[in-house]
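Problem statement: downstream parser choked on a complex file, so we are re-checking the raw output for the N-(5'-phosphopyridoxyl)-D-alanine run. The parser issue turned out to be on our end (a line-ending mismatch), but while we're here, posting the original submission so the record is complete.
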Amino acid sequence: LSIQRGYALFDFLRSVNSIPLFLPGHLDRFFGSADGLHLTVPYTRDQLGAVVQELIQRNGIDEAGIRLMLTGGSSPDTYHPTTPNLVITCLPVRTATNEDFEKGLRLITYEHQRELPHIKSINYLTGVWLQPLLRQQQADDVLYHSKGLVTELPRSNVFIVSKEGSLCTPAAGILHGITRKKVLELAGGLLPVEERAVALEEIYNSSEMFITSTTRRLLPVREVDGRLIGNGKPGSVTRELYRRFRELEEGLRAGGPDR
Ligand code: PDD
């Protein structure tokens, strides 16, 4: 059903020094996505966690990307889900560098709302389809918006620092990223945090903007639709949150307490 109807879901996490990063959050989301698509994961949460750990060990890749995929299964009538197929892969992964951070991203906006946004389905049709437009516009990525509100990027969440000095991130119509959640936690005490609707107009006037994802961590946005965000350089809040995030990761690398 995955190939025939695009009916499947996945989750993606990475390992740091052979330790799966934020595994509990990823497992929660994987099981949540399966539930959302009415599919049953053929393992318990603990079993699946152990499988992920073993896969990392056996592959011997310290910094790996682990992809858990669950499909609608082999369907005789090519429509109704049967017993899901579970596939887990472990491959070397490239993460964003400090140079990527300093450079920041150029985004363009595009009106689109992902289907069943809270589910990490395999549907990236619009995102992949937009690639030629991105190349033509010399943009790094696209920011989706719908009915005047921004939501997320095809593979990342978005944050702004508002003119009033709060950290704001859309709450609805999005996939709840694991990196997003960690950044919200790390922002505690630094500045007021608001999970709320963010208007497209507001982002153009924001003083800082950044995106989050498993492979990109935090990356500043320097330009949206040709308009500069702040002074086009990584802002102080973005920089401090990035520092805290790297510190959290380094703590895990050094065998610190879990996530
Ligand atoms: N993308 N929104 C969407 C639609 C995503 O697919 C992702 C993840 C995110 C960020 O979530 P997280 O912080 O948990 O990675 C937000 C993965 C990395 C991908 O498709 O490659």
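For whoever reads this later: The longest helix spans residues 236-253.
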